[in-house]
Amino acid sequence: MATTKEQNINIVQNGVNEFIKGNIPGMLDACADDIVWTTSLNPDVPFAKTYKGKTAAGQFFKDLGSNVDFSEFSPGKYYGDDDMVFVKTHQAATVKKPAKNMIMRC
Length: 106
Known about the structure:
Blueprint: H1 4-20, H2 24-29, E1 36-38, E2 50-52, H3 54-67, E3 68-81, E4 84-95
Antiparallel strand pairs: 1-2, 3-4
């Protein structure tokens, strides 16, 4: 029987696969209703804020898509600890409209 850590990693892997396919609603289906989606906070990046709840998390992906074109997004290793999962990814993207002093660190 899988541990909670393994179950959580599997849930995140499925969500990431849905993201890669462009199925954001499918990805969000794997998330809890009270999800808190946070990125590195940077006032020069329009999508760099905290989004609370599934609807808001969906807005993150709309905001991201309005500002960034990904040419690559590859998940690497998944790390789990209790109820948290971290995914190491490789990403390549182009910013559609760079903001003044905008630096993205992923």
